[in-house]
Amino acid sequence: MAVTGVNSGAVTYGAATGQGASGTPRSRLRNLLSFRWVAVAVILIGWFVYYPIVDNFIVSTTDQDIFTGEVSDVGLANYDRLLHDPVVWTSLWNNSLYAVISIVFQVFGAFLLAAIIEGLGSERLRRFWRAIYFVPSAISITVTGLLFYFIYQPEIGLLDAALRSVGLDALVKPWLGDPKTAIYAIIAMSQWQGFGYSTLLFAIAIQKIPRELYDAAIIDGAGPSRRLWSITFPLTREMTGLMIIITITGAFQVFNEVMVMTAGGPNNSSQVLGTWLYQQGFIENNFGYGAAIAGVIFVVTMVTGIAQLLYTRRRRVQF
Amino acid sequence: MKRSLQAVALTVAAASAFGLSAGKSYSAGKAVEADPAAKVEYSGTLSVLTKFGLQQLSPYFIDLAKEYEKLHPGVKVELIQESDDSVKGKTKTLVASNSLTDVYFSWTGSWGGNFVRGNRAVDLSKVIGPDTDWGKSLVPAAVQAFQYNGKYYGIPLYLDAKFMGYNKQIFSKLGLSAPANFEQLLSSCDTIKKAGIEPISLGNKEAWPVVHFIGQLLAYDVPRETLERDFNPKTAKFDDPGYVEALAQFKELADRCTNGATMNGESYASALQAFSNGKSAMYYQEIIEFDQSAGPDSALKQADFGFFVLPVPAGAKGDPKAVEGAPEGYMINTASKNIPLAIDFMKFVTSKEHGQVLSAPPYGQPSATVGGASEANMSPALVDGLKVLKSASYLMPWLDTANSPRVAAAWLSSLQALSGGSMSPEQVMDQVKEAAVADAKK
Predict the structure, then answer these.
(1) How much is the mean pLDDT over chain B?
(2) What does the alpha-carbon distance between residue B402 and residue A89 come to, in Å, rounded to a whole number?
């Protein structure tokens, strides 16, 4: 087993075959011809990935009326509005909150749970618990939203009824209707749904760790917690890193959960960038401003994506 | 390798350059006038976007489509059925992608005005105007409601208005009768609350239910001409003191008649259900919801269902005989390939016979066709509701479709804050004015 940097053993095709010299006209022609094999993919990526990004930026510098088709250039005015829009800052805060809480539960919590499940002696028991925790991830978000709406419902909701039954009446509140709790109620639902999926991924990563390492540690007198922190945790750090990045990216792209539960209310308190973008574009007819908000989401997710690339290159674990 | 990268960069740049030229892709429609003499080609597909997506309403258009296809075997009717909430987003998505259906649902007011402004609605004046055969078969005020710039663009399907439904049994047990004024309504709420019953079930998770309360109160508190001035983004001021008064009246009603701040965590459907199950004494509802509130399967039976117009507060300076409501209907897309067929289909939909089906339970949507809303088929409350509607001096349009989208959004979000207790009436009006100012600058 070794923890190495990326490409330590990689050999480029050109270097191995001695075709690296590209100065002659013949080799130039060969290079040009070789491009045709990737041309289709490049065109498709350019059209479906890069063109929309450029187009989104263009749209964000305009004010558009979808009904009349009128388009007027407004320069960077939409970005200026973005800086002064309090709902954008609320949305950014909510997205960040989503990310932080999701990392705690869906990364570190899921890691611990996966370690506990994989530490069980019986394979049947391990399968059973993996399935039990994965079930919520298989339920559609609309169904989950409706389910949790009834849990949070102030009159007949399960949560408030449970609180009342144990004498915690002071904590009873309209969870989705209170601006102070709406976003937390949505995030809690999201954790319930995403937790099992992350656990499953961590379980797979833990299964890949050679059993001999644990055997050697036991011989050396290491207890369960020592084995967890000295073997399991470092050897799953690639997955941990990946999960953190995926969780952050997902938290900034969140839309369905909020739309189904509160649509951003009450009074925009649970807006996230995705729902505020939708509100601006499809409800308020401000497609230019909506595109500027989309730009913010793009920048955040792109920076996270680059971090993911760098992280996985530098921290790859090989057995 | 370096050259390959250059080639990739070049390709991406080329694609992006194409993007630059193709970026502004919205295209406005061209003004189209319906020709009454046009021959109908009974072939092809007709797409229809309805607002009948709810389970209990959806069979209406499905049955009509089947019947029409049977009459005209060459025609296929494709339905997109949305709910009251989802139809707004769906319509705008279809407009933005230039995929609007041949026939589409529309409210009156600024919502319908958007399609007219963008030349996306066929001018139907020559086929549905008051002097035409089709026009004469419809309720004149309903046809009039879809008039823009002196031309007729909409096909009204049913009439809608807001009333306070109440449970007669609860009222009589407590010795109450339908309140004659706003203050009496509040004192009735106190009595009902003391009896351990929720006076008015109100779910405001979707934000528009409170907007409807405010709409009716504004009609009472603000003079009509001021309201209509403020519906127009170019002249809107929202400076009449009646606005703040109406909001304060609502706040008092919310405090004394509802479960207060919890309303924002409850959906309007749950609130309707609570009323229908006899758990609440009143529910502020549209006339098209009467048959959903009280029916053979609900705890609240038709005989125990009563209604009244939200009572007028003392000293109100607006119109005391105004009722909040408007007809709702359909428009025909100027880009439709078969406009005569679309018109023919809508004539079929608005026939007296189909109007009677629409007005009767389980649909309970009072038809805008003359003779369609037949007393013989309709539930008694619906018949009485229509009579009140006909005697109204002014139909106050829904605030969220009468105002521009930005102002409507300000109403929706700030009224949620008012209901939750985090904003005062003055602060709500500041938000609305701010949105109106921003709109005027556009």
Answers:
(1) 91
(2) 29
What pLDDT shows up at residue B27?
A: 60
CB contact under 8 A, B12 and A279: no
Distance CA B202, CA B193 (A): 14
Q: Which domains does chain B have, with CATH numbers?
A: 44-160+326-394 (3.40.190.10), 161-324+398-441 (3.40.190.10)
pLDDT along chain A (319 residues), means of 10: 40 44 76 83 93 95 91 95 96 97 96 94 91 92 91 91 94 93 96 94 94 94 93 92 90 93 94 96 91 95 85 67
Which CATH number is A105's domain given?
Answer: 1.10.3720.10
**Residue A169 belongs to some domain of the structure:** yes
Please list every residue in chain B whose beta carbon sits closer than 8 Å to the beta carbon of residue A149: 267
What does the pLDDT read at residue A314?
66
Please name every residue paired with B50 in a beta bridge, in sequence order, or none if there are none. B81
Q: What total of structural domains would you count in chain A?
A: 1
Q: What is the pLDDT of residue A5?
A: 39
C-beta atoms of B27 and A69 within 8 A: yes
Q: What is the DSSP string of A51-117?
A: HHHHHHHHHHTEEE-TTT--EEE-TTHHHHHHHH-HHHHHHHHHHHHHHHHHIIIIIIIHHHHHHHH
Query: Phi-psi region for residue B108, left (φ > 0), alpha (ψ -120 to 50) or beta?
Result: beta
| pTM for the predicted model, two decimal places | 0.84
b/e sequence B141-155, b meaning 16+ C-beta within 10 Å: bbbbbbbbeebbbbb
Chain A nearest-CA distance from B228, in A, is 20
Structural domain for A210, as ranges? 80-318
A-proximal residues of B, 250-279, CB under 8 Å: 259, 261-267, 270, 274
pLDDT of residue B19: 39
